[in-house]
Design goal:
This protein is mainly α. The chain has one domain (about 1-300). It is built from ten helices and no strands.
């Protein structure tokens, strides 16, 4: 009797793991586009840091991302049970924040010598100022990660909505861990490409293969700054896509130019999301600027 009970339990566990595996695969496919944006946005956040501080900052943001997901997973499960409609409106607020950040970043990038001035400022910082700048970068990256993580958690929750609670919880935790270590592992690899290039350039062994590795190292050294600059722009643009998607998907019944449920062509869909993101970001920046001006006048 005990033996049959054990095998029945083992069979139940195997079935549970199989179901979780299937749901996790579906969730990964559903979140693939968000993960691409997440990677670009997070790589953009470590641009302009001193080389020896890049990995510590990535690790600090990674730990912050784990804390974000530790908050978001139970929060999403609770809200989905108590007030499911509220989840999407919270995403809209997060989307507006992303669009606001995108406009701020865009203004900085398009201002004359904006990026160059930032790089020069970072190089001139003393140790205490560098720590303050780094802490600000980490804080901003963790806040942005919170919004992007919220979308990943909600998408995953929609995939497992009909599953038992235990399967929902385990799948959400697995996806959260996979996304966090996957994304920040790639970010860490990207920001240290120049180090890999230097190591390859220092190879002294004779032969065609070693010569090829040295040439590859030189290519990586020259390509790394350009790649980081490209990712900086991609990360900024991704904020409008993600933020615009949050807002557009929530405005059901709104003007046809904002939401088109029948859209099939992905390019048209992305362009609409970007347009919504740009408009929302511009409005958010204008409101914030006006609020700052009014507060200065009131407070003197």
């Amino acid at each position: 009797m005990a033996g049959s009970s054990f095998f029945a339990l083992f069979d139940d566990i195997a079935t549970l793991l199989d179901d979780i595996s299937v749901m996790s695969k579906v969730a990964v496919k559903k979140t693939a586009s968000v993960l691409t944006d997440d990677l670009a946005v997070n790589a953009e956040k470590v641009v302009e840091l001193k080389a020896d501080r890049e990995l510590p900052v990535v690790w600090a943001v990674c730990k912050g991302s784990l804390v974000n997901k530790a908050i978001l997973v139970p929060l999403a499960l609770g809200l989905n049970y108590l007030a499911p409609a509220l989840v999407h409106w919270l995403l809209v607020i997060g989307g507006i924040y992303l669009c606001y950040e995108g406009i701020e970043s865009l203004i900085e990038k398009l201002s004359p010598h904006g990026g160059q001035d930032e790089a020069r400022k970072v190089k001139r910082l003393n140790e205490a100022e560098a720590k303050v700048y780094e802490a600000k970068k980490v804080k901003g990256a963790i806040v942005t990660d919170f919004v992007l993580s919220a979308e990943i958690v909600v998408i995953t929750l929609n995939v497992v909505a009909e599953a038992p609670f235990v399967q929902q919880l385990i799948t959400l935790v697995l996806i959260s861990l996979l996304v966090t270590f996957g994304v920040y592992g790639l970010v860490a690899g990207i920001v240290r490409l120049d180090d890999l290039g230097l190591r390859l350039r220092k190879i002294t062994h004779p032969g065609h293969f070693s010569a090829m590795l040295r040439r590859m190292g030189g290519w990586l050294i020259s390509a790394a700054p350009k790649l980081m600059k490209l990712l900086s722009w991609v990360g900024t643009i991704a904020m409008f896509f993600v933020g615009g998607a949050f807002i557009a998907e929530a405005v059901h019944g709104g003007p046809e130019w904002i939401v088109k449920p029948a859209i099939k062509h992905w390019l048209e869909n992305y362009l609409i999301q970007a347009a919504v993101g740009l408009i929302a970001g511009a409005i958010a920046v204008a409101v914030a600027w006006t609020a700052r001006r009014l507060s200065h006048r009131v407070l003197g």
